[in-house]
Amino acid sequence: MLTTLFLILFVVLGLWAVARFFLAGEDLSRYDGAAAPAIGSERGHREPSREHHDAVALLATMSDGASGGGNRLKQMREGMDAMGDTADLTGITLKPVEMNGVPGEWVLADNSDPNRRLLYLHGGAFTAGSPRSHRPITTKYARMAGVSVLAVDYRLVPENRRIDCLTDCQAAYRWVLENGPDGQGAPDVLFVSGDSAGGNLTLAVIAWARDAGLRAADGAIALSPATDAAFDSPSLISNIATDHMLGPMFGRITRLPRWLVAWFGLLSNRMHPCDPRISPLRGNLAGLPPTLVHASEAEMLLDDARRYVNRAKEAGSEATLETWHHMLHVWHIFEPSMPEAKEAFEHILRFMQRAENGRADTAVESAS
Q1: Do 254 and 228 touch, CB atoms closer than 8 A?
Q2: What 3-state DSSP class applies to 107?
Q3: Could you say which of 3.40.630.30, 3.40.50.1820, 3.10.580.10, 3.30.70.2190 is the CATH number of the domain covering 77-354?
Q4: Full-prediction pTM beyond 0.90?
Q5: Each residue of 168-202: pLDDT tens digit?
């Protein structure tokens, strides 16, 4: 009996030691302060809209109706795709496309310019989501900004490795630099955007493009992004109760002892959780394109966003954090019914216009 107990203790201590001295990355708590200047919602601290409460109730219904076991992932994927069917497709053209083996779709509005492009990387915890599920966002981008939106249908886990998600997005980035909805040709303007897991991929892709010597995006927009696979930011604990979407899904995991969370990061991602390819927060954040990050002050990923923006600014990159009170994780997907989503997209459009004007000014300076 004592031999068994000693063996168990030895194994536990070994696992703890590996987590503490190998899996644990740099302490980034110094980046927890509010990003300055942090731009909040014009709504201030007022109660969220009725439409926001309706969305919270809808999520609760979906969660209650989900069964356990192997069907849960299938139901989550089907449910996310079904939510995408609420998108208004009036005046929208959807064109399936394959980007050197990676599937996706062009989302084009009547005013979409084929030479002004936006690469969109959907969310869904890397396990769900598709171009179909995120049409409420991609159609909004197309109509609002007059861009041709390319939504990427990257491979998902657990059938594939976590790094495969990024590899597909990198391939799509290379492709969109040479191809538009009307055929071959370089873009005049290029943006990259994504939400949640797609926000993570957005931030990873712009850093990779810099390192690969590729044409940089004119701007990046990350909506409620996960920036650190080490699961180390304080809001992952403090905001469990207020995050109506991620709290029920991941709250039990983030409450585990830190060393167990580190092992979860290693096993779920099949690579070191602090690798910058899956934790863009922990990479080189210098020399990146202008980046806008949105987050809710009620969501678990709030401090992922804060840390990323603070660290990017310290590295000399142009990065802005805008936060909204009370909102659901990626509330943008409830546009146009939710006023706060409409407001968020107004901020995004202003950012895109500033980034595009900045690019034009730079081109003029280079020519003179």
Answers
A1: no
A2: strand
A3: 3.40.50.1820
A4: yes
A5: 999 999 999 999 999 999 999 999 999 999 999 99
